[in-house]
Amino acid sequence: MTFTYTPGDTGNGTRVRLLIGDTDPEAPLQQRLENEEITDLLTMFGAYRAAAAAAADALAAKFARLATEKRMGQASLAWKRYESLTALAKTLRASASFAALPFAGGISVAQKQSLDQDTDRIQPSFVKGMMDNPSSANLNTTSSTAAA
User: Is the pTM of this model over 0.85?
Assistant: First the structure.
C-alpha cells in the first residue's frame, strides 16, 4: 500500500485527499487512506467529489474504532474526528450534486438526427405525437362533410 500527496497536483486522487484533509504522509495507517483505497473509491463513484464524500465516510469508520477521549487525572482530551468527518461527508455530497450540468438535447437539427440514429441510445419514454389518435383524422373530415 502506498500514500502520496503532492500539493498542486490536479489528479483526482490528490483532489480527494485535499478535500478530506488526508494530506499527512506521517499519519498512522489507521488514520489515513492509502492510494489504492482512493483509487477504488474513484472507480466506484467516478467523480472526485463523490469519491471524496465516500472517502470521508471510510476515514470516519476508521476513527470510529479508535478511542475518542483520554483522561489523565484532572486533564482530559477529546477527539471529534469521527463527527467532523461524517459532517464533511454530508457537505461533500451536497456539493457533488451541484457539479451536475443539465443537458438539453435536440438543440440543433444535426444533433437531434445524430441522437435518433444512435442504436446504442436508450429510447425516450415520451415522444412527440405519441398521444395522437390516428382515427381522429377521420373525425375531422366526417364532421365537416356532415355539416355541409
Answer: no
